[in-house]
Amino acid sequence: MKSFPPETMVLSGNTDRETANAMMRQVLDSNPGIVSTWTIWEPNGFDGRDAEYANTHAHDATGRFVPYWIQDGKGGHSTAAIVDYDKENYYLLPKRTGKIAMQEPYVYNYGGREILQTAVTVPIIVNGKFLGVAGVSVPLSSLQKMVEDISIYETGYASLGHLRG
Q1: Which domain holds residue 28?
Q2: pLDDT in tens, 8-57
Q3: Could you give the angle at the alpha carbon of 98 between the alpha carbons of 123 and 142, nearest 5°?
Q4: CA neighbours closer than 13 Å in the CB half-sphere of residue 109
Q5: What distance in Å separates the CA atoms of residue 109 and residue 89, rounded to the nearest whole number?
Q6: 18 lies in a domain?
Q7: Which of 16, 53, 77, 85 can pair with 91 through a Cys bridge, CB separation 3.0 to 4.6 Å?
Q8: Global pTM?
């Protein structure tokens, strides 16, 4: 899966929100196995300019950079601001632990299609400070296909399972 390095953007001082959005769109376009990508930044964590973006597209009321790119189910995609992220494990778990988090499978509606998926979220940490998260949603069917394509020596195989069955 191709990705973008948000930490590198911050460290280099190249924190342009349009560039970051273009990178997320590219991740979505380049990886047919994912259905959405997003990032959620701490207040002023991306570029220190949240106030300039208050109540604008793909930002919350305070201007936090919280874009959510999603497949529309018709071959295109759209973007919006993520809502209620401060109540959800896809944000809270990596923030609390500083580690990658994978969510319990859940059903999400994409343009009239219900898809069983999981979310994988990574913390964005720069110089030991938590600045936000970046994540993708992956249908379980895509994960299953990846696992089926794994070849371990001549007779080995891989399988996809869950702790609860």
Answers
A1: 6-139
A2: 555 556 678 888 888 888 888 888 888 899 999 999 999 999 999 999 99
A3: 50
A4: 2
A5: 19
A6: yes
A7: 85
A8: 0.79
